[in-house]
Amino acid sequence: MRVAAGVAACALLLTVGATSCGGGHGSSLYTLAATKSCLEKAGYRADTLANSSLPGSGGNLRVQVSTAVPPLEPNAPRGTVVPDQYVFLVFEGSPAEALTTENKAITLTRRTLFDQGISATRGYVKRGVGLARNVFFYSPSGALTPSQRAKVERCLR
Q1: How far apart are CA 156 and CA 133, in angstroms?
Q2: Rounded mean pLDDT, 119-147
């Protein structure tokens, strides 16, 4: 079993619940509403949602970054998340809160991987997620691809 599959399993647990936007690079905090608007203008579906594991004081956003539907493996469990479809953003009130959320998510991911018999370093898991100012983001299907990361970062506002 690949470590990425283990990361996907934890990301799924955590989520139980922009190509043309240009990046917002001022010193203010990013907001869910402005980011969602940019993503939607760029053609991505973005939905607000509740996330009990990573609630985010500024809310949570699920962004569909791909509409391609790769085939699931024949033995995939019911409810399996289709790979490379979504990125989840957790908006916090400050960069320090976003860092705390990132640390919590990494710890939960490593714990889940360990429970599945997979060992992953903190650094390995951290490379698969994103953190920008007051926003923590991740994919439920494994490490963020460069394309996913770019789509999200271009529309952070």
Answers
A1: 10
A2: 92
Residue type, 122: R
The total number of structural domains in the chain stands at: 1
Q: What are phi and psi of 136, to 5 degrees?
A: -105, 135
User: Of 5, 8, 3, 11, nearest to 105 (Cα)?
Assistant: 11
**Residue 134 included in any domain:** yes
Q: What is the pLDDT of residue 68?
A: 73
Residues facing 86 on adjacent strands? 64
> Is residue 24 in some structural domain?
no
- In a domain, residue 74? The reply is no
Does some domain include residue 119?
A: yes
How many CB atoms within 10 Å of residue 102? 22
**Across residues 94-115, what is the average pLDDT?**
96
* Tokens coding 134: 């007051």
Predicted TM-score (pTM) of this structure: 0.77
